[in-house]
Amino acid sequence: xxxxIVGKFTEIKRHKPSVIFIPNIETWYASxxxxxxxxxxxxxxxxxxxxxxxxxxASAECDLEHLPAELLKxxxxxxxxxxxxxxxxxxxxxxxRIREATRLRLDFANNYAx
Length: 114
What we know:
The structure is a single chain. This protein has 5 helices and 2 strands, in the order H-E-H-H-E-H-H. The model has no long low-confidence stretch (mean pLDDT 86). It is mostly helical and 114 residues long. The chain has one domain. The chain has a two-stranded parallel ribbon.
């Protein structure tokens, strides 16, 4: 697994800008914590210069305040400037976006139908 991680970071350095996406970071962190894979990942992440256009994007199934403090420190440092929380949309917002996407898709289909 460590070789795969090193290979991925090689690709990240080669193809910038890059995004590292970790879905369900709290589960991922809990399952790999204190493993050689986690140490390798953190070492490779810390080796990226802060000026490089690489974004670490993570999602969580819980709110920011419920994430372990160690996880936030290990991945995003001590500064709160290194992270932002995007609030989950409420149900009304989701429904409005779905309706808008559906309307746009229908407009496209009607305008470009053969």
